[in-house]
């Protein structure tokens, strides 16, 4: 036991001497203690569940587009018959039915999407709040749902900004700009362009992570507290996307992967992404800026009456008794004279 205690003390001393390692250990402990893996799995489930209403809305939009462009619809149905043969007529009938019910499907998709979206954002906010270890006061359910709706709308705007930056980074727009000004042939221009594209992608990821970590918990914190953690999450996320793209190309090359790879890939992608997000939140919550040590309340004060004994001497007691007796006698004599 002494040997184990000595080893533990040495390891703890080495960890304390390295602030970054000490912070990493604290963040890992917070992540495990607050059930980060459990919440990441739950959010992944709600993410997959929320996709079905979005698909309904997408099919409804496609139905409106095809209904307004008969030439495009005829071309699509011709391609279906060409690819499926005898089953083409049945598939085209299903397409016609889907186009006919596009309004109903769209309304149901929007209502169901709103319901599942509110459930998704509520679980995400609960998971983030757990990592901060904050106690939130109970609110009326309608106020909480309005808050979740506002958070969902804010997250949508953050994702739009992120997608815009990612599109600029990956669409080849920067390369076209270089070509338009005649700098595409400059040595090293392609390297600089690649670095700028990666930087823009990381900036987009950082913006989303920073907003989510700081603003989505039930008790929002400052963006300054989340900035460093969001940078770590953005780097980890970009590395994960790079490795995940290679892995998906390998998996989708097989028949089984082509059949189930998309849904499995989506679940794995969501789970790892939310683990990165929750660990980054734990990192932000355990930083020195947010280390608010609670001061123990003082011990309760007990008030008790106390009788103080002056310990009078015998002589002093006799003198006091005599003075009292003389005063009583004087009062009696004075009363008789009257």
Automatic annotation (TrEMBL):
Q: Which domain of life is it from?
A: Bacteria
Where found, per UniProt?
Cell membrane
Q: Which residues cross the membrane?
A: 38-66, 149-170, 191-214, 226-248, 260-285, 315-334
Among Pfam families, the record links this protein to: Virul_fac_BrkB
| Gene Ontology CC terms, in alphabetical order | plasma membrane
Which UniProt keyword terms apply here?
Answer: Cell membrane, Membrane, Transmembrane, Transmembrane helix
* Listed InterPro entries: IM_pro_YhjD (IPR005274), Virul_fac_BrkB (IPR017039)
Keyword Cell inner membrane, does the record have it? no
How this chain sits in the membrane, per its record, is: Multi-pass membrane protein
Q: Does the keyword Zinc apply?
A: no
Give the main localization category: membrane
Q: Which NCBIfam families does this one have?
A: inner membrane protein YhjD (TIGR00766)
Its recorded name reads Inner membrane protein YhjD
Species of origin: Nocardia coubleae
Lineage of source species: Bacteria, Bacillati, Actinomycetota, Actinomycetes, Mycobacteriales
């Amino acid at each position: 036991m002494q040997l184990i205690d000595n080893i533990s003390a040495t390891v703890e001393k080495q960890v304390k001497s390295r602030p970054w390692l000490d912070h990493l250990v604290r963040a890992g402990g917070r992540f495990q203690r607050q059930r980060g893996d459990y919440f990441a799995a739950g959010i992944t489930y709600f993410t997959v569940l929320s996709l079905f209403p979005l698909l309904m809305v997408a099919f409804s939009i496609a139905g409106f587009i095809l209904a307004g462009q008969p030439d495009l619809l005829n071309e699509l149905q011709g391609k279906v018959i060409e690819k499926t043969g005898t089953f083409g007529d049945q598939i085209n009938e299903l397409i016609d039915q889907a186009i006919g019910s596009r309004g109903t499907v769209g309304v149901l998709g929007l209502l169901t999407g709103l319901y599942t979206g509110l459930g998704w954002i509520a679980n995400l906010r609960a998971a983030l709040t757990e990592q901060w270890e904050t106690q939130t006061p109970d609110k009326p359910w309608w106020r909480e749902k309005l808050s979740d709706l506002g958070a969902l709308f804010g997250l949508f705007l953050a994702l739009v900004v992120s997608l815009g930056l990612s599109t600029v980074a990956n669409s080849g727009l920067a390369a076209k700009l270089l070509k338009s000004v005649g700098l595409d042939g400059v040595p090293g221009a392609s390297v600089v362009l690649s670095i700028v594209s990666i930087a823009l992608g990381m900036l987009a990821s950082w913006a989303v992570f920073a907003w989510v970590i700081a603003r989505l918990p039930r008790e929002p914190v400052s963006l300054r507290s989340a900035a460093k953690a969001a940078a770590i999450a953005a780097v980890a996320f970009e590395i994960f996307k790079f490795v995940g793209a290679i892995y998906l190309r390998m998996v989708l090359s097989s028949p089984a992967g082509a059949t189930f790879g998309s849904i499995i890939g989506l679940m794995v992608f969501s789970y790892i992404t939310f683990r990165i997000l929750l660990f980054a939140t734990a990192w932000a919550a355990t930083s020195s800026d947010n280390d608010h040590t609670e001061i123990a309340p003082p011990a309760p004060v007990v008030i008790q009456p106390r009788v103080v004994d002056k310990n009078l001497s015998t002589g002093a007691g006799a003198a006091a008794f005599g003075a009292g007796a003389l005063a009583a006698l004087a009062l009696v004599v004075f009363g008789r004279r009257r």
